[in-house]
């Protein structure tokens, strides 16, 4: 498929999805969101060979949020609630249900729903100059893209409300201290360090997809339900080729050679 607002490139077993509208700081139009959805579907095809998806942004920004420049006035913008239902929710659910790890490399500002996309990563690595911004209150709107779900679970109630009510910038290093993201690296090292991390995920066993499934379900399960889920997923994992390889490598005292199957 030919894309206008994103790039989808394959580097071995890694798919790199780059938001590619730097002239608007990668602000999301409905067309861009549709392309993101198509790119995720393309990368997750069983015969693609992809075992990790990484999202990043072109230019100075990861994603500055929704593109509000399409209309001449607020009344000309599409209804925000319906766009969330028809565009954003399906994409977020696609990312949640990926059969392999998803990570984000935040190269600049991640604002509004762009911050939500950044937080969707199983692992999040950010450039030192990057920052996060719950910008919604600045324009009289409500956090979306799953922000009100993620933030209190990731950084606690008080910090989540502070970010959303005051709409202040959260520098990358503070975000790491708070546990919102995993790593901060010098700007010039972001691409290389992100690809190294993605390669480790891509070289991992098929069970990585089951691990992320277990953690996602933990948000909604009771303890007993989660224990049962772990049992079910462990049975699935044990039947994979990679599990057999892992045990064999352990007994033979050698490095594993997982194949994602």
Detailed description of the structure:
With 261 residues, this protein is α/β, with parallel strands linked by helices. It has 2 domains: 197 residues, 2-enoyl-CoA Hydratase, Chain A, domain 1 (Alpha-Beta Complex), CATH 3.90.226.10; 46 residues, no CATH class. 45% of the residues lie in helices and 16% in strands. The chain is built from 10 helices and 10 strands. The strands form 2 sheets. It has a 6-stranded mixed β-sheet with strand order 1-2-3-5-7-10, sandwiched between helices. It has a 4-stranded mixed β-sheet with strand order 4-6-8-9. Helix 1 links the parallel strand 2 and strand 3. Helix 1 packs parallel to helix 2, helix 4 crosses helix 5 and helix 8 runs antiparallel to helix 9. It is globular and about 60 Å long. About 3% of the residues have low confidence.
How is this structure best summarized?
This protein is of the alpha/beta class and 261 residues long. The protein has helices spanning 30-43, 80-96, 113-119, 147-155, 157-166, 172-178, 190-202, 207-218, 223-238, 241-252; strands spanning 6-11, 14-19, 52-57, 61-63, 102-106, 109-111, 123-127, 131-133, 169-171, 183-185.
CATH class of the largest domain: Alpha Beta
Known CATH architecture of the largest domain: Alpha-Beta Complex
**Into which percentage range does the β-strand content fall?**
15-25%
* Unreliable stretches: 71-77
Helix and strand content put the structural class at alpha/beta
Please provide the count of β strands.
10
SS summary, helix count: 10
């Amino acid at each position: 498929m030919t894309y206008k607002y994103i790039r989808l490139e394959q580097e071995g077993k890694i798919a790199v999805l780059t938001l590619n509208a730097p002239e608007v700081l990668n602000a999301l139009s409905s067309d861009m969101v549709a392309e993101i959805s198509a790119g995720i579907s393309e990368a997750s095809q069983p015969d693609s060979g992809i075992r990790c998806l990484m999202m990043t942004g072109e230019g100075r920004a990861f994603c500055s949020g929704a593109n509000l420049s399409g209309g001449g006035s607020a009344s000309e913008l599409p209804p925000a609630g319906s766009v969330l239902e028809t565009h954003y929710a399906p994409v977020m659910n696609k990312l949640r249900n990926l059969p392999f790890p998803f990570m984000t490399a935040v190269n600049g500002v991640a604002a509004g729903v762009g911050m939500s996309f950044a937080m969707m990563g199983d692992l999040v690595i950010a450039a030192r100059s990057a920052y996060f911004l719950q910008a919604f209150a600045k324009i009289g709107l409500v956090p979306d893209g799953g922000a009100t779900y993620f933030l209190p679970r990731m950084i606690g109630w008080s910090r989540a409300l502070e970010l959303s009510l005051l709409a202040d910038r959260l520098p990358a290093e503070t975000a790491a201290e708070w546990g919102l993201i995993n790593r901060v690296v010098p700007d010039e090292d972001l691409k290389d360090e992100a690809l190294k991390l993605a390669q480790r995920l891509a070289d991992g066993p098929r069970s990585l997809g089951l691990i992320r499934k277990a953690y996602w379900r933990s948000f909604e399960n009771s303890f007993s339900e989660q224990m049962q889920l772990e049992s079910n997923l462990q049975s699935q994992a044990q039947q994979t080729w990679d599990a057999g390889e892992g045990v064999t490598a352990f007994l033979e005292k050698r490095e594993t050679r997982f194949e994602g199957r």
